[in-house]
Amino acid sequence: MKRFFQPVAKEGSSKKPALSGHSGDEGVGGREGSAAPGEEAEKRGPLKFLTWNANSLLLRVKNDWPEFSKFVQELDPDAICIQEVRMPAAGSKGAAKNPSELKDDTSLASEEKQVLMRALSSAPFKSYRVWWSLSDSKYGGTALIVKRQFQPKRVSFSLDPTSSKHEPDGRVILAEFESLYLLNTYVPNNGWKDDENSFKRRRKWDKRMLEFILQSSDKPLIWCGDLNVSHQVTDVSHPDFFIGAKLNGYVPPNTEDCGQPGFTLAERQRFTKILSLGKLVDAYRYLHEEQDMDGGFSWSGNPVGKYRGKRMRIDYFIVSEQLRDRIVACQIHGRGIELEGFYGSDHCPVSLELLPKKD
């Protein structure tokens, strides 16, 4: 996978024990400055990871940040992967955009950027560095937030090994560390119809993901994020509801495409193929074989309406088989239909902890 990257520019419950805390270096917030990584930490690489679809990071900063900051302080992850940042990329109207930077060329954009960066410059986030992959508008987008002592060797923003560009809508951040690769993705929703923006788009994405996974690599992979698929029946709260779901009465021509996006047979079969051929392990399901109706789902429907209480597990940590025996814990941190631990989003955070690699 080394050829996937552009160099990083230099800058001035479970079957295993629960996640344990450890402190990180203090540093300057945002993208400014960089503490020299400790040789031991750099070699060991990150061991504790968090993924969260924030459903607008700016809204979470404005409305839910004290609670989320406390959660991060206590969990103390080495790397945080965010999906649905929903902040536009830098660049004026009609000009080329820079998806690695936040837009700030209007008074409103500048104000919103300042709000976000102030939050990321405060504890506990001031000891981390941030990478962005952003859409042209307030849609999609991902962020990678890494403790400074675990800085990646390289960061890329595409599933295409020949491309130096970002994926459309900022859906990918791929980081190479000394000991592993970390892939943060916001996978396209399958949608409800067999057109270019729904079924066909998702089929193309799954094909590209399989091709990416099958590329030879000298290091194990951790793939996380909102993968927009519930793999097994145990990954949804109401299987019959999701199997029979329709939009405005539309029924796709192929039976395997029928049902709730994320729980169609076609999506689930393609996901099975990716895991099988890629020799990958679903970390949460590896530790939690039985369904947990209270805390086993990472997405919850609107508390008002027909989706109340309807929940899915669509946020994952998928790891290479060689990491399986090092999994300490993989936890879903939200509970219940009242969205406890969701911090204002419709998704809750999911965490992973690994044991250090034995010499």
Q: Your description of this structure?
A:
- The structure is a single chain.
- The chain is α+β, with helices and mostly antiparallel strands.
- It has a single domain, classed as Deoxyribonuclease I, Chain A (4-Layer Sandwich).
- It is built from seven helices and 17 strands.
- It has helices at residues 39-44, 57-75, 107-120, 199-214, 239-243, 265-277, 283-287, and strands at 6-7, 48-53, 79-83, 89-90, 98-102, 128-133, 142-147, 154-156, 172-176, 181-186, 221-226, 280-282, 299-300, 311-312, 315-320, 327-332, 350-354.
- Strand 9 and strand 10 (181-186) form a beta hairpin.
- Helix 4 runs parallel beside helix 6.
- The two termini are 23 Å apart.
- Mean pLDDT is 90; it is low at 1-37.
- Residues 50-347 form the Endonuclease/exonuclease/phosphatase domain.
- Keywords: DNA damage, DNA repair, Hydrolase, Magnesium, Manganese, Metal-binding.
Look at the structure and give the mean pLDDT. 90
- How many structural units, i.e. domains? 1
How many strands appear in the DSSP assignment? 17
Biggest sheet descriptor: 7 strands, mixed
Number of contiguous helices: 7
User: What fraction strand?
Assistant: 15-25%
Q: Give the SSE string.
A: EHEHEEEHEEEEEHEHHEHEEEEE
CATH class: Alpha Beta
Helix content: 10-25%
- Would you identify the CATH architecture? 4-Layer Sandwich
- Would you give the CATH topology? Deoxyribonuclease I, Chain A
Query: In order across it, which strands form the biggest sheet?
Result: 1-8-9-10-11-15-12
InterPro entries: AP_endonuc_1, Endo/exonu/phosph_ase_sf, Endo/exonuclease/phosphatase
Region (Disordered): 1-42
EC number: 3.1.-.-
Pfam family, one: Exo_endo_phos
